[in-house]
């Protein structure tokens, strides 16, 4: 469900929500879009949350559909749950509560005192936690676990400058994944599911972990190889597997704790994500500006003129030349212009004075006939 606070970001006078079979934009959470054909009406998809493996990004790019996520919106929620799961892995909280619930009689207090020796746990303090991925979630987990007195070691060869700044300089980084696995009593994974990250933790990696270590996966199914982790649990190579992603085999194993994909499920995170996704969508629909996209470059230009033309096109040489040649033929004076690219896709925005609907119809047809152009859009200033 999308939090109503996000829907309220779309004023009723301007937007119809859930009322058309040809939507201009989709606001989603984890729903699987791989089998959904989103037509050419869909200019953008915003995912309230971090992971975008539920969206076919290549198809979206070739359709000229910009995909957004809401980085960091639920990171605190995941961090807090990780702390809870670390404690649940380490102290017999569940079993002691179940035991205590069965007690009765006037001497319950005495019985608890006598029985508590069966429920000794260990402490997180001075244990080593290895954090794979130091982005929005991983960097927060690093700080929180360091505050609990844990020895923290991180691994993230692709860390962004923003996240690197956020990370305390006291958090040592492993030179490679093996070093992290070999040193850690707990290993927690906070990376996106991508083709490269599929089975990142498989038989070899599990064999490198310390005997009796505990593995947490609150990132995605598929990053940890299921058969390999079951084998590692069966052979007691690792002591526990704690995850937000279930399968029958994992859920029924004695040494797993499975939560039902609730890492980002807090009131606060749902509101953050919905509002952020809605605001990002509105910005794109109303100005063409792109922030927090996972398949398009970041492109922002102040919208000071009356009319904006946006073009999504392939990232090949001479596109700006081809576009401006056509504009010159229409005698259009360019007030401002920006062009940015990301991998195979490029985006150009051109600001000019008002263009009538008839003229724009012809212009749009000509621009759209450039073979590398995927989508042409007009935005009129209100
Ligand atoms: N359980 C949940 O409900 C829940 C909630 C939020 C996020 N997530 C999952 O957690 C993932 C991380 O979330 P985030 O907000 O921290 O994302 P993020 O993009 O801020 O951080 C991900 C980090 O992983 C790093 N990374 C990528 N591949 C790596 C690899 N092979 N080894 C080491 N580091 C690698 C990146 O450089 C980046 O710094 C999301 O992609 C999503 O799948 C799950
Ligand atoms: O929508 C959700 O609740 C899941 C969110 C989480 O998996 C994410 O990737 O942000």
From TrEMBL:
GO terms for MF: NAD binding; phosphoglycerate dehydrogenase activity
Pfam families hit by this protein: 2-Hacid_dh, 2-Hacid_dh_C
SUPFAM superfamilies: ACT-like (SSF55021), Formate/glycerate dehydrogenase catalytic domain-like (SSF52283), NAD(P)-binding Rossmann-fold domains (SSF51735)
Cited CDD domains: ACT_3PGDH (cd04901), PGDH_like_3 (cd12174)
Keywords, alphabetical: NAD, Oxidoreductase
Entry's EC annotation: 1.1.1.399, 1.1.1.95
PROSITE patterns named among the record's database cross-references: ACT, D_2_HYDROXYACID_DH_1
Pathway(s) annotated for this protein in UniProt: Amino-acid biosynthesis; L-serine biosynthesis; L-serine from 3-phospho-D-glycerate: step 1/3
Catalytic activity: (R)-2-hydroxyglutarate + NAD(+) = 2-oxoglutarate + NADH + H(+); (2R)-3-phosphoglycerate + NAD(+) = 3-phosphooxypyruvate + NADH + H(+)
NAD as UniProt keyword: yes
Domain ACT, first and last residues per copy: 308-381
InterPro entries: ACT-like_dom_sf, ACT_dom, D-isomer_2_OHA_DH_cat_dom, D-isomer_DH_CS1, D-isomer_DH_NAD-bd, NAD(P)-bd_dom_sf
Family listed: Belongs to the D-isomer specific 2-hydroxyacid dehydrogenase family.
Function: Catalyzes the reversible oxidation of 3-phospho-D-glycerate to 3-phosphonooxypyruvate, the first step of the phosphorylated L-serine biosynthesis pathway. Also catalyzes the reversible oxidation of 2-hydroxyglutarate to 2-oxoglutarate.
The protein, known as: D-3-phosphoglycerate dehydrogenase
């Amino acid at each position: 469900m999308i939090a109503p606070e996000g829907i309220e970001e779309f004023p009723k006078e301007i937007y119809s929500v859930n009322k058309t079979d040809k939507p201009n934009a989709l606001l989603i959470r984890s729903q699987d879009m791989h089998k959904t054909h989103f037509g050419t009406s869909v200019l953008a998809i915003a995912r309230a949350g971090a992971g975008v493996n539920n969206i076919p990004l290549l198809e979206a790019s070739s359709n000229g559909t910009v995909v957004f996520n809401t980085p960091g919106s639920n990171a605190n929620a995941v961090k807090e749950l990780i702390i809870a799961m670390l404690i649940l892995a380490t102290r017999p909280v569940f079993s002691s509560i179940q035991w205590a619930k069965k007690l009765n009689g006037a001497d319950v207090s005495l019985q608890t005192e006598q029985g508590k020796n069966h429920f000794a746990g260990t402490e997180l303090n001075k244990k080593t936690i290895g954090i794979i991925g130091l982005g929005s979630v991983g960097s927060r987990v690093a700080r929180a676990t360091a505050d609990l007195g844990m020895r923290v070691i991180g691994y993230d060869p692709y860390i962004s400058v923003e996240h690197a700044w956020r990370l305390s300089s006291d958090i040592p980084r492993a030179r490679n994944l093996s070093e992290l696995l070999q040193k850690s009593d707990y290993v927690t994974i906070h990376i996106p599911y991508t083709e490269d990250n599929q089975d990142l933790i498989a038989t070899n990696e599990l064999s490198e972990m310390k005997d009796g270590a505990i593995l947490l996966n609150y990132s995605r199914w598929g990053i940890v190889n299921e058969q390999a982790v079951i084998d590692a649990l069966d052979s007691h190579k690792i002591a526990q597997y704690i995850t937000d992603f279930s399968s029958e085999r994992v859920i029924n194993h004695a040494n797993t704790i499975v939560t039902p994909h609730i890492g980002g499920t807090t009131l606060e995170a749902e509101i953050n994500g919905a509002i952020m996704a809605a605001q990002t969508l509105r910005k794109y629909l109303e100005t063409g500006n792109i922030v927090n996209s996972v398949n398009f470059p970041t492109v922002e230009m102040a919208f000071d003129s009356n009319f904006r033309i946006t073009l999504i096109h392939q990232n090949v040489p001479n596109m700006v030349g081809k576009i401006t040649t056509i504009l010159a033929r229409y005698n259009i004076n360019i007030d401002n212009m920006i062009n940015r690219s990301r991998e195979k896709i490029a985006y150009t925005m051109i600001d000019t004075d008002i263009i009538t609907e008839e003229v724009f119809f012809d212009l749009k047809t000509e621009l759209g006939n450039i073979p590398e152009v995927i989508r042409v859009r007009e935005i009129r200033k209100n």
